[in-house]
């Protein structure tokens, strides 16, 4: 029985660690004018870059884009849309139903540009105005991870308690 439990535990650990899953992230950028662009998305981090972007939601000063969750995602420069943690290589164009948002590295990343368009508003900032220091991206912890950890600790505690209460078999 003990060997079966060990085998099942090892199989569960291998299955859980085999697939890389997208992580949920939140981002914010404050334009030089004070306009705040916030939102969230899913992606997979590789060093400074997050790729495999999906499920974007964007808010301009708290007002949601109409296409949140179903926006089309394109690169502005190159082949793959990416988000960078430090804001120096972020490269994406989001198209909603009536809005768009772009952040693009230009001139090899030395000049960046950010802009958005909503009905009645079209604004952007580029060379000299864009600041990577005003760009923030953070991973959002998953509640399931904490629940699995607590469940594992409870299971270890239950096994330890059972072993302590077990009466030794004398042969």
TrEMBL record:
<protein>
    <submittedName>
        <fullName>PEPxxWA-CTERM sorting domain-containing protein</fullName>
    </submittedName>
</protein>
<dbReference type="InterPro" id="IPR013424">
    <property type="entry name" value="Ice-binding_C"/>
</dbReference>
<keyword id="KW-0732">Signal</keyword>
<feature type="signal peptide">
    <location>
        <begin position="1"/>
        <end position="22"/>
    </location>
</feature>
<feature type="domain" description="Ice-binding protein C-terminal">
    <location>
        <begin position="139"/>
        <end position="164"/>
    </location>
</feature>
<dbReference type="Pfam" id="PF07589">
    <property type="entry name" value="PEP-CTERM"/>
</dbReference>
């Amino acid at each position: 029985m003990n060997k079966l439990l060990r085998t099942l535990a090892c199989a569960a650990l291998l299955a859980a660690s085999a697939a890389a899953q997208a992580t949920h992230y939140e981002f914010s950028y404050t334009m030089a004018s004070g306009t705040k662009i916030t939102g969230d998305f899913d992606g997979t981090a590789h060093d400074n870059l997050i790729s495999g972007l999906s499920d974007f939601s964007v808010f301009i000063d708290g007002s949601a884009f109409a296409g949140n969750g179903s926006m089309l995602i394109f690169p502005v420069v190159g082949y793959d849309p990416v988000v960078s943690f430090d804001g120096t290589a972020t490269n994406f164009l989001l198209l909603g139903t009536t809005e768009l948002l772009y952040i693009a590295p230009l001139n090899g990343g030395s000049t960046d540009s950010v802009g958005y368009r909503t009905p009645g508003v079209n604004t952007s900032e580029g060379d000299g105005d864009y600041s990577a220091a005003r760009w923030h991206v953070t991973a959002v912890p998953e509640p399931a991870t904490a629940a699995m950890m607590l469940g594992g600790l409870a299971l270890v505690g239950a096994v330890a308690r059972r072993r302590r209460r077990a009466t030794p078999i004398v042969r």
